[in-house]
Amino acid sequence: MGWFIFLVLVVGAVAAYRFRVPLIAKLTGQPQxxxxxxxxxxxxxxx
Length: 47
What we know:
With 47 residues, the chain is mainly alpha-helical. It has helices at 2-18, 20-28, 32-44. It has one domain (1-45).
């Protein structure tokens, strides 16, 4: 049973990372393109 819970948590974390832009946009109420720009800026090392 412990392995099943661990597997569900890992799959949930991967799904949340994979769909982070739509999730963050829905939670914050901001457009997806704005969230994507902010994520891309952080990848480039700019603030």
